[in-house]
Design goal:
7-stranded mixed beta sheet, 4-stranded antiparallel beta sheet
Length: 119
């Protein structure tokens, strides 16, 4: 089991920055990947960025260059640095963790944190 707690959301003006944090209840070095998704009103949840325990990362193409995912294994925390924010980045941002057990992959989700970008 993995519990995930996000923080760092809020209201920011367009062009500003926010850093989201996701604290895991266990060592993230044993978690195969951790990432961020977002869901805007009326839209499907979409991948923002993912970080694998081998150090590799992947991003949504539209967000490359503005968003950066990173991890601190000592703090069991993953971060999402968001720069040059736009009103269309407004969404609930969810932390996600994927763990491979003997019978397959299990995904865990945080409760979400609201990010609102005003124009």
């Amino acid at each position: 089991q993995v519990q995930l707690v996000e923080s760092g959301g809020g209201l920011v003006q367009a062009g500003g920055s926010l850093r989201l944090s996701c604290a895991a209840s266990r060592s993230i070095s044993s978690i195969n990947y951790m990432g961020w998704y977002r869901q805007a009103p009326g839209k499907q949840r979409e991948l923002v960025a993912r970080n694998y325990n081998d150090g590799s990362t992947n991003y949504a193409d539209s967000l490359k260059g503005r968003f950066t995912i990173s991890r601190d294994n000592a703090k069991n925390t993953v971060y999402l640095q968001m720069n040059s924010l736009k009103p269309e980045d407004t969404a609930v941002y969810y932390c996600n963790a994927g763990v491979y057990y003997g019978m397959g992959l299990t995904n865990y989700w945080g409760q979400g944190t609201q990010v609102t970008v005003s124009s």
